[in-house]
């Protein structure tokens, strides 16, 4: 039987929420950054991904457990094969370690097979049906997917905008953390990650942040 979709009663987003005052204080206290507030942060993030930038996305309450489910995520275009090693370098991981994709829930069957759908918690390994996703396709042709619906928040709109421009409703999604560190929790930790790594851009509650 299909797994139930995430609802308000089955959400993984159980962490702390940070209000605007806290976010703005962290941004204004930080040295070595520039930040702006796009009219549509999700569309701006999709444009960054289209420009082959590696993007971190920080939104709302963090997800419970070890998975990046879209509120504390590092995202990348799945089409350039070199993004596999680029993101591993940013995270300080061995270059062979694989990554998982997010996909629009209603289009998952077009791109992957062999998985109970929906798969909102990134738990099931599937076969990649389409051959132009090298950054998330393992050597055996498999991948571990997360299907994304409206309950996932801004990453849903990032995927939609990326799909509109490319015809690819799939992005790499990995946890927003460095080597040996827990997943980023606070706005200050997100900014510190930007300053301490080679990531291109970080979005913190709708603000686009880059190094000065």
Q: What this model shows, in words?
A:
- β9 and β10 form a beta hairpin.
- The model is unreliable at 1-8 (pLDDT under 50).
- Helix content is 26%, strand content 22%.
- The protein has helices spanning 20-29, 41-50, 83-91, 108-111, 154-166, 187-196; strands spanning 33-36, 55-58, 72-76, 100-104, 112-113, 124-128, 142-148, 170-175, 201-204, 207-211.
- The chain has a ten-stranded mixed beta sheet with strand order 1-10-9-2-3-8-4-7-6-5, sandwiched between helices.
- The protein is of the alpha+beta class.
- α2 packs across α5 (154-166).
- The chain has six helices and ten strands, in the order αβαββαβαβββαβαββ.
Contiguous low-pLDDT stretches (5 residues minimum) are 1-8
Could you tell me the number of beta strands?
10
Share of helical residues: 25-40%
Helix vs. strand class: alpha+beta
Distance between the termini: 51 Å
SS element count, helices = 6
Supply Rg: 16 Å
């Amino acid at each position: 039987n299909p797994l139930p979709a995430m609802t308000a009663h089955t959400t993984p987003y159980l962490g702390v929420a940070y209000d605007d005052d806290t976010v703005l204080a962290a941004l204004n206290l930080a040295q070595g950054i520039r930040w702006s507030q796009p009219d549509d942060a999700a569309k701006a993030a999709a444009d960054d991904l289209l420009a082959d930038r590696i993007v971190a996305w920080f939104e709302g309450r963090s997800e419970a457990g070890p998975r990046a489910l879209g509120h504390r995520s590092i995202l990348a275009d799945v089409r350039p094969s070199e993004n596999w090693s680029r993101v591993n370098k940013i995270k300080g991981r061995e270059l062979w370690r694989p990554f998982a994709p997010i996909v629009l829930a209603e289009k998952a069957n077009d791109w992957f097979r062999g998985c109970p759908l929906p798969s909102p918690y990134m738990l099931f390994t599937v076969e990649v049906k389409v051959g132009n996703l090298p950054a998330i396709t393992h050597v055996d042709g498999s991948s571990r997917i997360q299907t994304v619906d409206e309950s996932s928040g801004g990453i849903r709109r990032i995927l939609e905008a990326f799909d509109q421009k490319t015809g690819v409703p799939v992005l790499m999604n990995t946890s927003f953390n460095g080597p040996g560190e827990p997943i980023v929790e606070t706005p200050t930790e997100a900014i510190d990650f930007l300053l301490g790594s080679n990531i291109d851009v970080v979005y913190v509650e709708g603000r686009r942040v880059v190094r000065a």
